[in-house]
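Entry 14: structure prediction run for NmrA-like family domain-containing protein 1. Input pasted below.
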Amino acid sequence: MKKVVTVFGATGQQGGSVVRALLEQPDNFHVRAVTRNPTSPKSLALRAAGCQLVQAELAQTESLIPILQGADCCFLVTRPPVKMVQEEAAKDEYQYGMNVANACMAVGLPHLMFTTLPNCEKITGAAVPWSDSKARIAEYFKEKGLPLTAITLPDFYENYLSVLKPQKVEDDVYNLEIPTGEQAYSLINISYLGEAVRHIITHRDEYINKDITLATDRLTVGEIADIMNTHLQPMGKTVRNAEFTLDQTREKYKHRAGIEDLVNWYKFILAGPADPQYEEYKDIELGRKLMPSAKSFDEWIRENKEALAAALS
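Run finished. Output tokens:
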């Protein structure tokens, strides 16, 4: 019998990867793709690919119950609403989590998978609302006794084509302005997250009521710059590790909303390894096992060097 899986964020990076992986095995899975707008082009593309479209809002508990009823598993990703005050957005996101918990309890959902982030404030004392809120949601699910697999995710490779891309300093020369010094940090090839989720669904008993971390590489910012150079210099572009500090980051982006939260995130990367709670965040063996098609960062840059070069232009 097919397993019915309700997938939130089905048009995004995480949920989209899950949908693709499940649709590769149509005899094993029936996908309910959650959307706020079932007539959008992305939603219609999901229907054409074989998904059942279901409409719901995380802010409305009553809309969540029908889409979870009869499901074997739910894959949940939450995003805070866009607000200037990050603390307010985080409170709303936490409410979304409580709404999902209430709906899961109402229908007796057998398995909930939730992608979360570390509680930076708990580990370092420096709050990161968009990270800490997800950690608190996971704790709330546990308090309510939900059958949970909490999946902690690190930075995405794919972000190096956008928000983390090197910044131009002169023609064909770019600075990687990430203030993490010599501290290595974990990364994930998020396009293949669905492989891990599919495995976890079919091996539920191994992962129920477990916290896991999925990562596929672990590098310093200097190593990231070196990898980029290996593939970009033959194309006439040079990437340098700018060796940015936290103070330089704060000063350069002082007019950007949420900059202090970003600085605190980097504080977590720098200070986190001193805390025992951080240990599992360094693991890449499980990610590579559950995501066999995922690439190393070097392989991914090699395959996407043209896209990176275009993003830098």
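Notes: The two ends are 50 Å apart (CA to CA). Will compare against the previous run tomorrow.
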